[in-house]
Every structure is written in C-alpha cells, then in structure tokens.
C-alpha cells in the first residue's frame, strides 16, 4: 500500500519574525490544512514561492514574494526545483501525493509530478477559498465523530 503524502501550499499571512513552517504561516486556511494533513497523511511537505519545497520543522525568515510575480518560465523552473527536491525524500513507486494549493501553483506542479512518475490527487480542485475552509471544517468534523 502506498503512503499518503500531503504537498501543501503555505499562505500569504505570515509572522513578522523567524519561525518553523508550522508556526510561521497564520492564515485560517493554512492552519486547517495542517490539521487535516496531520490526521490524514503519513507525511507532509509544504511549498512557497520563495523557498520552494519546505519541511515542517524548517525555520523561515519573513519575506514578501508571490508566485504571481513570476514569469511563465520562472514558474516552470520553480516547479521543477520543488519536485526534484521532493524526490530526494519520496519515491514515485511508494507514495500517492495529495496536492493542496491554488491553481497558479498546481498548473506548474502537476506536469512536474507527472513527468517524475508520481500519482497525485487534488482533493479540493475547483473550490474557492471559502469553499476550501468549509471542506476542511466538514472533513475535520467527520474525523472527530
């Protein structure tokens, strides 16, 4: 049986001082995604525009950078680096990836996952932020009952 791996986006709301990934991002969507991931996945990785792939205990410094400012080529290079680093930790034959994050990220991560042979699912494809928050609330409520 393949291990379930969460590959999660971070968020815009951040602390103004260095902190580990799990504390650094403060948006409700990020916090709920982390809570969900801890309950449903065997391992979790994160990604942001500045650093690419992040480990949960990695300490980050404050930054102000959005992937929306990247050119198409920069987005492709960014995504390739994220998945190449991810491949240093996980093997396509052993995992199923659950990709969380906005379309602006997924449009470039998905082709890289496919190229490297990773199976992946997008649990909240097509949902807006409000719908994603509601989805997490529903899933988290079900896991408590």
TrEMBL record:
Pfam families, sorted: DUF6884
Domain of life: Bacteria
InterPro entries found in the cross-reference section: DUF6884
Record-annotated DUF6884 domain positions: 6-137
Protein name, entry field: DUF6884 domain-containing protein
